[in-house]
């Protein structure tokens, strides 16, 4: 079952179109990487899903219920983590989670139990101080706890790691990996290594619509290989091999790159190496990374 | 109801923990004390300055202060306290837009009208407490020093000023649902207030503008209560209309 379905959604700010006939769906229990350049419309899409921003056209279903602008009805299925979550600084984490729980309609006993569990997951059990004294990383972790307080079916994370240092990013990604067993996650980001690490499915938003979609493996297979690299022990070996197998580019004294060559062509190079008795230090197929695909699609 | 109660409770917690309640309570308490104190100190101050005033040709003969002097001071001071009150609450909604704190609440399913209702109720209750604290302190001191028995329609005139505050709160909510900054809210509120003042200068309309309620001290000078009924009725109607209009306006805002 699809937890989220977007059909032909469009949005423009003034005369500038941001989303053009955007359609995609997110199946249950997946981590969906929603990627795109800054300003591609990721945040706008999320705000439309949350009913905070009006779409010019199209339809959005959350848990098969239609999203209506200005109404928070479908938000009872959603947990939202903004890029820089803001809280009432005069509250403690427990007080804030209690407020969130009561707003989502939870019972007091359930709120207490769930808050304890979540604060343990995000590592804030010891903190009884007010949120105004929290670091950015602590706020981000509390952001995840508040987003999960009502055990939502869909967790929307808008660039949750973009403002964090490497340690903070790792913490957040670990938490998101852990919650995906129970919750479907949409993870918007422009940090592609984060997507490769935790996402099952990816959609690349470019010029208002999805330019690429599918699992990371499927997307990689859609594109041709980036070629192969050969690294030799001695510069003479590299020179000799280049004469036997031309079309390569020099990357260094001992390194050669054969751009755009297929796996079959690398096998041919291997046969030449065996026949001539040259031992390479390394011979490696260059698989397309999400980053190279991103660059190719966005033209950056 | 649970959402409304939770958000209202949060509003009260904010009032106490950010010190806003304490600041306003102290300000209104001080104004309440100042009214009779200024009246009491006026003869002493005049005596102190009598020599320098005499040198400039002004002769002070006899200064009489009574309960009316203190109440006159109250009607002079309460607009200042009112302005401070509204400046402190000008960002009641815009502060949440700017920080992004409201987004979390709305994405949890909190209805926008409940945000307005909770904030409106909190500000209204605080205005009621602060205004009647100031009024009560002045009343108590006046009763102690002079007695309030000779002052007609005292509570009715207080009610008129309080009602003017209620109208301003409804303007605050309406402007907060339209604009994104506290300064724009203050400007819009001030603009409507000024417009009401200008309309009040037209003889045909003067008694029908809410601003006329400021003249409620006239009840102590022999004015009839019925004179203030049109302005009070208009203030009630406009307050209800502004509060009602702010709900669909906020519902249409892109946040």
TrEMBL record, chain A:
Signal peptide: none annotated. One of its GO terms (molecular function) is ATP binding. The keyword GTP-binding does not apply. InterPro entries: AAA+_ATPase (IPR003593), ABC_transporter-like_ATP-bd (IPR003439), P-loop_NTPase (IPR027417). The keyword Transport applies. It holds the Pfam family ABC_tran. Residues 4-232 form the ABC transporter domain. Keywords: ATP-binding, Nucleotide-binding, Transport. Belongs to the ABC transporter superfamily. This is ABC-2 type transport system ATP-binding protein.
UniProtKB/TrEMBL annotation, chain B:
The keyword Transmembrane helix applies. Coiled coil: none annotated. The keyword Transmembrane helix applies. GO terms for molecular function: ABC-type transporter activity. It comes from the Bacteria. Keywords: Membrane, Transmembrane, Transmembrane helix. The chain crosses the membrane at residues 21-39, 74-94, 115-141, 153-174, 186-208, 228-251. GO terms for cellular component: plasma membrane. PANTHER family: INTEGRAL MEMBRANE PROTEIN-RELATED, MEMBRANE PROTEIN. This is ABC-2 type transport system permease protein.
């Amino acid at each position: 079952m699809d937890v989220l379905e977007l059909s032909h959604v469009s949005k423009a700010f003034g005369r500038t179109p941001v989303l053009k006939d955007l359609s995609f769906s997110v199946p249950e229990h997946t981590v969906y990487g929603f990627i795109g350049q800054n300003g591609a419309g990721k945040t706008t899409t999320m705000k439309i899903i949350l009913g905070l921003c009006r779409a010019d056209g199209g339809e959005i279903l959350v848990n098969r219920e239609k999203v209506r602008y200005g109404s928070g009805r479908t938000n009872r299925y959603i947990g939202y983590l903004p890029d820089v979550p803001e809280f009432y600084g005069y509250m403690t984490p427990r007080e804030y989670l209690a407020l969130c729980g009561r707003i989502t309609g939870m019972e007091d006993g359930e709120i207490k139990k769930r808050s304890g569990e979540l604060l343990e997951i995000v590592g804030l059990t010891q903190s009884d101080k007010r949120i105004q004294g929290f670091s950015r990383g602590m706020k981000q972790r509390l952001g995840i706890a508040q987003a999960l307080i009502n055990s939502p079916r869909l967790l929307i994370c808008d660039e949750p790691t973009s403002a964090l240092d490497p340690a903070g990013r790792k913490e957040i990604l670990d938490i998101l990996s852990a919650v995906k067993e129970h919750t479907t996650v949409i993870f918007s980001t422009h940090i592609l290594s984060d997507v490769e690490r935790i996402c099952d499915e990816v959609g690349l938003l470019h010029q208002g619509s999805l330019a690429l979609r599918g699992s990371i493996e499927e997307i990689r297979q859609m594109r041709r290989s980036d070629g192969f690299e050969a690294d030799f022990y001695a510069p003479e070996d590299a020179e000799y091999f280049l004469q036997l197998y031309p079309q390569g580019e020099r990357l260094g004294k001992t390194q050669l790159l054969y751009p755009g060559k297929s796996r079959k062509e690398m096998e041919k190079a291997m046969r030449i190496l065996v026949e001539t008795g040259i031992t390479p230090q390394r011979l490696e197929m260059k698989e397309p990374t999400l980053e190279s695909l991103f660059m190719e699609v966005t033209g950056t | 109801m649970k959402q409304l109660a939770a958000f209202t409770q949060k509003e009260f917690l904010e009032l106490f923990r950010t010190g806003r309640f304490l600041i306003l309570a102290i300000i209104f308490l001080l104004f309440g004390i100042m009214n009779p104190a200024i009246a009491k100190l006026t003869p002493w101050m005049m005596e102190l300055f009598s020599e320098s005033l005499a040198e400039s040709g002004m002769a002070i003969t006899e200064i009489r202060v009574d309960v009316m002097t203190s109440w006159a001071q109250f009607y002079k001071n309460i607009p200042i306290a009112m302005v401070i009150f509204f400046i402190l609450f000008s960002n009641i909604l815009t502060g949440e837009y700017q920080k992004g704190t409201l987004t979390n609440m709305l994405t949890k399913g909190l209805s926008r009208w409940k945000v307005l209702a909770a904030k409106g109720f909190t500000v209204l209750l605080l205005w009621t407490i602060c205004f009647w604290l100031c009024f009560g302190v002045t009343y108590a001191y006046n009763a102690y020093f002079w007695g309030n028995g000779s002052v007609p329609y005292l509570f009715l005139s207080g009610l008129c000023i309080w009602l003017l505050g209620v109208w301003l709160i409804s303007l605050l909510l309406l402007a907060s649902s339209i604009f994104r900054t506290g300064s724009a809210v203050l400007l819009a509120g001030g603009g409507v207030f000024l417009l009401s003042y200008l309309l009040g200068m037209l003889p045909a309309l003067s008694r029908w503008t809410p601003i006329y309620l400021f003249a409620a001290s006239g009840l102590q000078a022999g004015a009839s209560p019925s004179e203030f009924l049109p302005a009070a009725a208009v203030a009630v109607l406009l307050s209800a209309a502004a509060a009602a209009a702010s709900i669909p306006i906020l519902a249409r805002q892109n946040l």
